[in-house]
Amino acid sequence: MAEIRIEELGSKFEHFELQEISETIPRGQITAIVGRNGSGKSTLLRMLGRLARPEQGRIHYEDVPIGSYSRKEFAQLVSLLSQEKGHVPDITVRELVAYGRAPRQSSFRCRSTQEDERAIDWALATTGIRHNENRLFHTLSGGEQQKARIAMALAQESSVLLLDEPTTYLDLSHQLEIMEMLKSLNRKLNLTIVMVLHDLQQAAAYCDHLIAMEEGRVVASGPPRAIINRRFMLNVFGVIAKVDLRGEYPIIIPIPQPPKEESSMVIVTNVSQITKGSGMLLIERFNKVGKVEGMKGFLGLEVMLTENTKEYDEVTVSTRWESKEDFQAWTKSEAFRESHAHRQTPEYIISNKIVFYDVKVVRKPIEQVENSNAS
Amino acid sequence: MNVTARNNRRRWIGIALVPILIASVLYGIGSGSVSISVSEIWRILFNDGDPAHEAIIWNLRLPRVLVGLLVGACLAASGALLQGVMRNPLADPGIIGVSAGGGLAAVVALVLFPQFGYLLPGFAFGGALLSALVIYLLAWDGGSSPTKIVLAGIAVNALLGGVMNGIMVLNSDRIQSVIPWLAGGLSGRSWPHLQFLLPYAIIGLTLAPFAAKASNLLALGDQSAQSLGQHVELQRFLIVALASLLAGAAVSVAGLVGFVGLIVPHAVRLLIGDDYRYLLPYSIVGGAALMVAADTAARSWFDPIELPAGVLLACLGAPFFLILLKRRRLVR
After folding, report:
1. For site-directed labelling of A97, which of A44, A105, B183, B298 has its Cα 20 to 30 A away?
2. Number of domains observed in the structure of chain A
3. Min Cα–Cα distance to chain A from B9, Å
4. Could you give the 3-state DSSP secondary structure of residue A65?
């Protein structure tokens, strides 16, 4: 049964576009929205939380269009924990959690009712921060602060909890603690949780449902076991990885690839046809030229002698340069002119042809993937 | 600092504000070219006393003290609200154009149309509110952002200030009456001014505490406040409107009294933290007491010369403020 239905959602922004998103988010489960930076994950979450309005398409909560809830009704149904780290005044954890009651209070009333107090106590106990309730929020560690924020969202007593990267900036133990806490909230309270997660492994381990996004589109969605595989890793994250499905949840082992190198060079070939048997004479002549090694942009030199054609031999002098300008600088240099100045073209040269090649060199290492039955 | 220390500090400062306010009122009524003792003030206010002193108190000092209380309270409340809603600790009523708009309107009234001088408060009030509205509209782009309001405020302030200076330079023979007004003070303020100010001050100061909760939630950030079911745009507009009303009313009778709106809420914030449920009332009382004390000091210390209170506030307020900033870790 669907708690949240997204139909043909689309929206244009300055640098990117959300396109044709149709998804259902299952009730009482943990859903993670994953994808690369800039794929539109947070934008989608913001639309689910009514912080941004889509240009096209509809979102339904419980079959009711998102727009037909009043602000307070919506905040009673959906809590959203954004990444925004606004200024929390120097208030205690309990006072912060009490802010979560705002959707259920009048805008002016500051005192809480018994019902509010009960909900605050419950939120503090559920997140396991009762012992901190009288501490000032800003004296807590990052992980404890995040728990207090989650408690504030819980105090809203909503049935849907949206979180934007709840574990970012936390150390690993706090990350796991928060994820464990969310999982137990989901199991105990049947809370529907939707979160944007950067860490795919965490998403795979803790979530029931994944929505993978790429350039504003949903490219895959479903249970982690069903959708995470080698192809998924390559398509969605551009990462080559081994996926081990033998355990409780998919284990993703990224295989680092040496970076692709790209460079360009100019190859200049000077092909001379030479009377049969005189090839070595010309090569000796080239050997005397010298000094080319010191030139700027010089990458290398090869001399090739072909003696197997019938009428003539062929000598190819191939020089490699970073750019055409570098080669031209060589032809204008003192050393070059000196070597060519007082010599006449020897008779044994029948013809001579100079060719420039602009060459793009791409060194792409061969994928190092262990072949495994699991992948 | 733990929660007990914070609560104690809140309580003691709250308790201390009451005698401070009373002392500054008594100082305001008792001091001046003729000193009147506390017991005599009591007799004059509630029984009978020396007729000459009675006249001084009823006609000069009491109305001036009352105007001072309201002006200080309005400016401090306005500053506190703006600092919160702009998420900028340096915001003061000047930032939303109240000072520049009121100032320009006053210069126009006093220099170009001196025959309508009696309309000055109304004129200045209108100018202040108008320029605040213009800034808000300029900063609107499908929604308001505090940063844009601050930037639009700077631009509009510069423009209005330029026009004001232009008028003053072109009419340099007639600006004598404007200068004290621009410096800000309560010299010669009496019952008619109180009458003008009172309704706006009552409305504004009554409404201000109701903005406490919204201000606290807005401080968390727009998205967080919205997720808690708050109508962020509407609240921001109402709070800015309320702050404009408060500051505009104060500026229209007292001229450009600077600093109260910036320094009082900031000082209170450094002492007791930035929970608006406390910050607003404490700022209101603190602002009232400071304004009266500063005005009284400005007129009695240099007797027979009467200094504008704004001058004294700036000269004493700035160093005090710097000391507070140095000791910033008071709360955090």
Report:
1. A44
2. 2
3. 13
4. strand
- In chain B, the domains with their CATH numbers are 3-330 (1.10.3470.10)
B238 in contact with A, Cβ within 8 Å: no
Residue type for position A54: P
Please tell me the distance in Å from B267's CA to the nearest CA on chain A.
Answer: 15
d(CA A371, CA A47): 42
Chain-chain contact of A71 with B87 (C-beta, under 8 angstroms):
no
Q: Which amino acid is at A345?
A: T
Chain A residues with beta carbon closer than 8 angstroms to that of B87: 86-87
* Greatest CA separation for chain B: 64
- Cβ-defined contact of B221 to A134 (cutoff 8 Å): no
Size of interface A-B (CB pairs under 8 A): 92
Judge if A246 and A270 occupy the same domain.
no
Q: What pLDDT digit, counting tens, does each position of B86-130 carry?
A: 887 777 887 788 888 888 888 888 887 877 767 778 888 888 888
Range of the domain at A141: 2-254
Q: Please state at what angle helix B232-254 crosses helix B62-85, rounded to 10 degrees.
A: 150
Closest Cα in chain A, distance from residue B321 (Å): 21
Would residue A216 count as lying in a domain? yes
Chain B positions touching A91 (Cβ under 8 A) are: 273, 275
Measured on CA atoms in the order B82, B85, B89, B91, is the torsion positive or negative?
A: negative
The per-residue b/e assignment along B56-79, b for 16 or more CB within 10 angstroms, e otherwise, is: bbeebbbbbbbbbbbbbbbbbbbb
Please name the member of B221, B274, B276 whose beta carbon is closest to the beta carbon of A84. Answer: B221
Q: Given an 8 Å threshold on Cβ–Cβ distance, is B87 in contact with A108?
A: no
pTM > 0.90: no
Flag if B213 and A102 touch (Cβ within 8 Å).
Answer: yes
Q: Are strands A251-254 and A312-321 parallel, antiparallel or unpaired?
A: unpaired
Q: For residue A256, report the phi and psi dihedrals to the nearest 5 degrees.
A: -65, 140
- The answer to whether the peptide bond before residue B304 is cis (omega within 30 degrees of 0) is yes
pLDDT in tens, A4-34: 888 888 888 877 888 888 888 999 999 999 9
